[in-house]
């Protein structure tokens, strides 16, 4: 019997410690994120959505590569990078944070994990923050070490994820609070476990600290989850857009500032500490934004899949913005979207109820500005 044909584009795109397991369990399509393969399809994205919201799925998210920052001045250095007040983050706590450049543009929207007083992981969205952090450190005058550790996250997400975690770690895992972490050793497998995820459902992330044990960990979780209907899965675009969760390079990039995204809560602009981009963001807050992110409901037949290009938005025949992420929600039975709208000339374009025209590949469609998130706006499912 001949060996199966190797999948890949060459050694420049890295395979995760779970790559072979995802192939065995039915992954059919991949994309590239942080220079790594990430599974994007196990056969039916809508079924993946239902598996997530009704039961539990296991996702390979090793693409969330870690930037590890240690050393006597690590806390001072991390505060220089992020716009949230680090003094309000305890050891063992996680925070959703923004990294901005000197112009206030978003470089990344990672999860920060504080493992010790001067030991941090920055769990990345899709951009090269390792290089940025090392560059900032050069002339910072701070004593830090910055590198990438042998760490590979998995996400266990869905309403039954807690039951699977108890089967793996015991009942006390249920006491782990939202956006907190713990260290575990699971039958010789070293892990950091956090109550976080990219689904807006109850969920956990398991950060494997020994890449040689990836296959073993995957199979152990799948076996523990079998009584609870666990399925291999992938991060759900449907659930992400329902929750108004942002995807870097799609809904924001280096030219987007936090105020345009409505992420004011992540900018501690009036606190007594400095960070890269603070002066620019103070000016943006004073002057007002040029654009604003909105939610849309798009009329017409149910979309097949999600958009793969930005779609123009028009009002009275004039270009006024773009759709950044769009998909059909089978739960809401609507085409829903995130979009960026120009408000510097006409602020009312972002008003709830405003009707715009989307220029799709198959023609024009009416779109209505609505409140976002589209579902569970208080994130009760994830935080409860």
CATH superfamily of the largest domain: Probable tRNA modification gtpase trme, domain 1
Radius of gyration: 21 Å
Total domain units: 3
Overall mean confidence score, pLDDT: 96
CATH class of the largest domain: Alpha Beta
Counted beta strands: 21
The number of helical runs is: 9
Overview in brief:
With 384 residues, the protein is an alpha+beta fold. Helix content is 20%, strand content 30%.
Model description:
The chain has 384 residues and is an alpha+beta fold. The protein has 3 domains: 19-64 and 150-240, Gyrase A, domain 2, CATH 3.30.1360; 66-147, Alpha-Beta Plaits, CATH 3.30.70; 290-384, Elongation Factor Tu (Ef-tu), domain 3 (Beta Barrel). Helix content is 20%, strand content 30%. It contains 9 helices and 21 strands. The radius of gyration is 21 Å and the shape is globular. The model has no long low-confidence stretch (mean pLDDT 96).
Secondary structure elements and pairings:
Elements (H helix, E strand, L loop, with lengths): L18 H6 L4 E5 L2 E6 L3 H10 L2 E4 L5 E5 L3 H8 L12 E3 L2 E2 L5 E3 L2 E6 L2 E5 L5 H10 L6 E3 L4 E6 L3 H9 L11 E6 L2 E6 L8 E6 L5 H12 L5 E3 L3 H6 L35 H10 L3 E8 L12 E5 L2 E12 L4 E9 L12 E6 L2 E8 L9 H4 L1
Parallel strand pairs: 3-15
Antiparallel strand pairs: 1-2, 3-11, 4-9, 4-10, 5-8, 6-7, 8-9, 11-14, 12-13, 13-14, 16-19, 16-21, 17-18, 17-20, 18-19, 20-21
Helix pairs in contact: 5-6
